[in-house]
Fold:
Amino acid sequence: MSGQEYPGTFKEFQERFATEEACLAYIRQLRWPNGFVCPRCGSQKAWPRTRGLLECSGCWFQASVTAGTIFHGTRKPLKLWFDVMWWVVSQKTGASAMNLRSAMGFGSYETAWTWLHKLRRGMIRPGRDKLQGTVEVDETTIGGDEPGTRGRERESRSLVAVAVEGKAPDIGRVRFECIFDASAENLIPFVEDYVERGAVVRTDGWAGYASLRAHGYRHQVIDAGRGPSKVMPNVHLVVSLLKRWLLGTHQGAVSAKHLPYYLDEFAFRFNRRLSTHRGKLFYRLMQQAVTVQGATYEDIVHGDF
Structure:
């Protein structure tokens, strides 16, 4: 590998991460790319101990290499975690719990489902760069049909705000967020969180977007009379692909509670769809996995994590 940040092929992956020690060393490299720094005293020298611990030479504090990461507290081999992560990023249409269970020989569907949810929590990097240029913004509902509701009305369905960056000749990056309703109180903060101030923001004439110009955006209101898919083609294509992915890969069996994490997975995959290197996707997921605190099954099912 000669110092390369990620394996280029599956064969290289198998060779590089054949042991627990190799996996642990890679996590350490990603956590402290410029060398270990003691979280207690700031010393940059440490000796390796057993069970993935580093003992600081300055204050003798024992720091865990996996503490504060997705792998914290795991009872499973790190090699299995690495294998699962490589498998997940290799699935071009997304990873379902049923397929993961079969591929990795997990004993139950619940185990595979939990592992995927742990990984989804590491797919979005906090503080990501905001969308730039021309950005189409709209909302969509996710869930089954609700008789008697129309337009932006909904009862049990989830309302999702969508922002799509136009980047000729292709679509750029995407951002999603579940919102309570389509009021300005929800839509304006969504745009501010994900779109660079000064960008051109294209929306329909919904009143919730009316104050975008006052918030520093070049707001273009599009006449939807010709059909939304024609006047804002990027956002409607992304929404169509998202819904097809949820129905195809996950058979539509996604609860409102867990939908934000499925949106994170879709965004992770879509924003890297042009990458031809599985190894680089593995590397990006690993980079984020070492910055996210691991969640337990109880956290995922019953908590707010």
